[in-house]
Amino acid sequence: MNEKSNPLLFQVANAPGEVIELIGHLFDVAKPDKVYTVPLIVDDLTVITASELMVTMGAGYGGGGGFTPTAGEEEQEEADFEAGGGGGGGGFSMGRPVAVITIGPDGTQVEPIIDPTKISIAFFTTIAAMMMFLVQVLRFKRSKTLT
Questions:
Q1: Do the domain assignments include residue 1?
Q2: Same domain (yes/no): 146, 78
Q3: Average pLDDT in the 20-35 region?
Q4: What pLDDT, in 10s, does the model give residues 58-107?
Q5: Residue 44 pLDDT > 50, yes or no?
Q6: Is there a single domain that holds both residue 53 and residue 82?
Q7: Fewer CB within 10 Å, N or C, the chain?
Q8: Domain range holding 123?
Q9: Cβ density class 43-76: b for 16+ within 10 Å, e for less
């Protein structure tokens, strides 16, 4: 089998190198200049914003081939070789400010940036989990008393 007779299989074989290159770009996101902003200096006061960065990624590739008999399984020598393959990937990135660092004559202060949406989502998720647990406990208790 050579590249001319089966170009798709060779294309799939080269794809993992592209994945490694893409993963290398993820390290560019985690550099300090991406997490901390350029300091803003006004008089004696310096302000820096710190951010939270999240990056996720996934990729997969596969390929395969086999002989397809032209007239029947007995004529395996005259069978055509067919191959196929494919791949895909995807990712997500998100950043949000988490703190403001203020440096001044009175010292350094770090003030967190509170995200009310994140807090409310965590609150309602916790309440829902507690309610589901309570329902399960009540069902278990009822089934034990009825039998």
A1: no
A2: no
A3: 73
A4: 777 778 887 776 655 555 555 677 777 777 777 777 888 899 999 999 99
A5: yes
A6: yes
A7: C
A8: 115-147
A9: eeeeebbeeeeeeeeebebebeeeeeeeeeeeee
